Fold this protein.
Amino acid sequence: MLLFHPAAASAENFAVTSPWIGFIASFIAGDVKNVRYLSNWDSSGNVIKTSSPRSGEIIIAIDAKDAENFRIKKNNKQLRLLYDNLPMTKEQLQSAFFDPAMLPFLAQSVMKIMSEEDKGRYTYFQRRLAEFQSKIESTIDIGRHLLSNTKMLDITGAEGTWIRSSISGAVRPPVSVWEGWKAGDTQALKAALDEAARRNWLILLDPWTPEIIRSAAVGYEYRLTLPPPSKDRDYFVFLHDIFLAIWNKTKNVKTK
């Protein structure tokens, strides 16, 4: 099916500070040629600056603090902020990009900026936003189909938000317990890991699992560490592959 794109010559060029926002902006744009990433993830999931804005580019940043991290002044005429001041910790923001309830709102904010700067493609951007929502729902449906009976202990730092939105068998410790583990309650952490191992539950980690928790979990064989995303990989393929990686690890294991 061919989609109509207004004349490419009139399309705005966007630079995005966050690779998370880059995923969304690239999807809304329908291709990557008008969206340039100023950062990427390393193998540990840290966001690393890789470039600086170019003349004429519209810069999209999460908020003023995000722009400041790239030495972009708030009064820069090319700067557009998704939020004036996003009241989230770094950890909460990472999780938000794996939250099916948050992603459409983030995408809508990105689309609003892009359509204001590129008014000729407003209708196209609206259609892409609707498709973005549809992609979230269809990918979640795949996860529910693959992992409906899967049990796991979720000790991820962010990606578990995506898993828990899809299946009921992903067990996450309460916030107070999680904070206790991070603060050094290794006895309680070991007890939870031992119980997961006894039940043949998968122990699920990701690049953002706190180091003190990761160190305790590496002693357990039945575990899986999910990879970080990459700007060179379609985000919905990445989200789908999270489900697939868990399914491949758990498909021949019976829980107790």
Remarks:
- The chain has ten helices and ten strands.
